[in-house]
Write a structure and sequence with these properties.
0% helix; mainly beta; elongated; 10-stranded parallel beta sheet
Length: 189
């Protein structure tokens, strides 16, 4: 049976040297912790929050993220596609997620607020009702995605091929709707 750690706040810990202890973390908060290049495989996080943490290049094989919120975190090159699908639910506020992958993840109602999502792979994702509030999605890959009712009205650097995604009810602003025409290499003035 896994260790159960409940309602603990971890502050200014450096897990890049010695990885976080394996177990189930419930209602825990991680503040200003360094997880860079550490192994979080098969750890379960339930109703947890990460604030001002560096999680770049963390290993996520079988990691469970159940209603986990990330605020102001550096999360470069993460493979969320390797996380457990069971009750997977995340939210990101002011995070840097460049070069990460969500390949085939169910991200219904996921909120990306003021995030950097450059070169992120969303291939085969269900992003129904997801929100990309003031997030930079330059170079992000949206292929074979369900984008029904997704909100891209304030997204920056949008480029999505409507012919390769299901987009019924998706929302765009007049400024970023041009990003739906990029593949045609036409200019709108």
């Amino acid at each position: 049976m896994a260790n159960l750690i409940e309602e603990v706040t971890f502050e200014k810990e450096d897990y890049s040297i010695e990885s976080l202890e394996r177990g189930d973390y419930e209602l825990c908060t991680f503040i200003n912790c360094n997880f860079a290049n550490s192994d979080l495989s098969n750890i379960r996080f339930i109703d947890c929050e990460f604030h001002d943490c560096n999680l770049s290049a963390v290993k996520l094989g079988g990691t469970s993220l159940q209603d986990v919120r990330f605020n102001n975190c550096k999360m470069l090159g993460l493979h969320f596609d390797e996380c457990s699908d069971f009750l997977f639910q995340v939210a990101f506020d002011n995070c840097m997620l460049n070069h990460s992958s969500f390949f085939k993840k169910k991200l219904v109602k996921t909120r990306f607020s003021q995030c950097k999502l450059q070169e992120v792979d969303f291939t085969d994702c269900n992003l129904s009702s997801a929100e990309f509030d003031q997030s930079d999605i330059i170079g992000a890959t949206f292929t074979n995605c369900t984008l029904a009712k997704a909100d891209f009205r304030t997204a920056l650097n949008l480029s999505i091929d409507p012919e390769r995604n299901r987009m019924k009810g998706a929302q765009f602003s007049q400024q970023n709707v041009v990003g739906l025409l990029n593949k045609y290499q036409i200019k709108v003035g």
